[in-house]
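Q: Please design a sequence for this.
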C-alpha cells in the first residue's frame, strides 16, 4: 500500500490496482475547501493516466462522508476573495474514465451527495443520510445534478431532494437508485473496497467501453456543469444567499 500525503486534508492511498481518495477533515465533517478540491482533482487526474490503477474509491470519515463545500469559502467567493477550483473538480469527476466506488458513512450533504451521481457503485452505512439543501441557501444544485438526478432517481425524487431539500435515508437512497448497498457502519469501507477490487479485476478495456456506453456523452454533462456554475456564481451574490450565510454564521457564534 502506498500513501501519498499522510496527515493532509485529502489523502491518497494506492492498494494494488485501487486508488483510495479520502477526504480527511473530520473536525469539520469533511467540508471541502478550495485546496481540498484541488487535491482531489489532482488525485483523480493522476489515477486516470496511471495504467496500474483500475478503480478509484472515494471515502470520508466514520462520522461524515462529506458535509458539502465549506461555507466560509462560499462567502469568500461571493466577496471575490477566492478563485474557485470546484468546477475543475467536477469536470475531473465527470471526465474520469476509471470506475468510481464510494464508501459513505455519516452525512453526505450538498456536493457530498451530488458527487455520488458520478459514481458507479456506492456503499452506504445504514445510518447514512443524504441531503442537498442548496435552495435553502439561496443557491442551486451543482455537479450536473440537475441533469443526472432526474435520470437516476426519477423527476419526483430528484425534485424532492434537490429543490425541496428533503433528506434521504440510506434505505431510501438505495430504493431510489443512488446507493447500491447498505451495510453496517463498521463494514462500509471493507465492502466498498471489495467491490472496487472486484471491478479492478475485470478486463480494463471492456470496463472502460461498457462504462462509456452506459454513461453516455461527457459533453452534455460538461455543458450542464458550466451552466449550473454560471447560475451558482450569480446566486452567491444574491440577497437570499447573503442572508442565509449571515444566519449560518450567527448560529455558529
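A: Design:
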Amino acid at each position: 500500500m502506498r500513501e501519498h500525503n499522510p496527515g493532509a486534508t485529502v489523502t491518497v492511498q494506492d492498494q494494488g490496482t485501487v486508488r483510495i481518495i479520502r477526504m480527511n477533515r473530520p473536525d469539520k465533517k469533511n467540508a471541502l475547501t478550495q485546496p481540498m478540491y484541488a487535491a482531489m482533482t489532482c488525485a483523480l487526474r493522476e489515477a486516470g493516466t496511471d495504467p496500474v490503477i483500475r478503480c478509484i474509491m472515494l471515502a470520508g470519515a466514520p462520522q461524515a462522508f462529506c458535509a458539502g463545500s465549506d461555507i466560509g469559502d462560499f462567502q469568500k467567493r461571493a466577496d471575490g476573495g477566492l478563485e474557485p477550483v470546484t468546477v475543475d473538480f467536477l469536470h475531473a469527476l465527470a471526465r474520469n474514465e476509471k470506475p468510481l466506488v464510494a464508501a459513505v458513512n455519516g452525512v453526505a450533504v450538498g456536493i457530498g451527495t451530488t458527487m455520488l451521481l458520478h459514481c458507479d457503485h456506492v456503499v452506504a452505512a445504514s445510518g447514512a443520510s443524504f441531503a442537498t439543501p442548496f435552495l435553502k441557501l439561496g443557491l442551486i444544485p451543482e455537479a450536473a445534478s440537475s441533469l443526472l438526478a432526474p435520470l437516476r432517481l426519477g423527476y419526483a425524487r430528484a425534485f424532492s431532494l434537490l429543490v425541496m431539500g428533503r433528506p434521504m435515508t440510506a434505505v431510501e437512497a438505495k430504493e431510489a437508485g443512488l446507493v447500491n448497498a447498505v451495510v453496517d457502519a463498521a463494514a462500509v469501507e471493507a465492502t466498498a473496497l471489495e467491490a472496487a477490487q472486484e471491478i479492478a479485476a475485470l478486463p480494463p478495456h471492456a470496463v472502460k467501453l461498457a462504462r462509456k456506453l452506459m454513461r453516455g456523452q461527457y459533453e452534455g454533462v460538461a455543458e450542464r456543469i458550466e451552466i449550473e456554475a454560471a447560475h451558482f456564481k450569480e446566486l452567491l451574490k444574491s440577497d437570499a444567499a447573503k442572508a442565509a450565510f449571515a444566519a449560518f454564521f450567527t448560529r455558529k457564534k
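Q: Thanks. Anything notable?
A: The chain has one domain: 2-184+204-252. Residues 2-184+204-252 form a domain with the 2-enoyl-CoA Hydratase; Chain A, domain 1 fold (CATH 3.90.226.10).
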